[in-house]
Amino acid sequence: MSAKRKIEVFAAGCVACDETVAMVKRIACSSCDVEILDMHDPAVAAKAKSYGVRTVPAVAIDGRLAGCCTGTGPDETSLRAAGVGVPLP
Q: Which residues lie below 8 Å from residue 14, measured CB to CB, with a gap of 6+?
């Protein structure tokens, strides 16, 4: 069996964050290991900073900030293009 794709959602409990969490959970597949991270935790905030997160919500895939999260925020099309919801062979 193939390894899983690690999906990290950085959120702070706002409506936009909740919508992103719901979207990622909806489109995730069996090859996705989704983890929701609370930005109120200093260790999580430090990790987010190391990824280049400047705003929340933000999504990292396999340790790299998703391209959609470097500017306008997460969107389903960009996350799918990055592999979220696409089973690994």
A: 56, 57
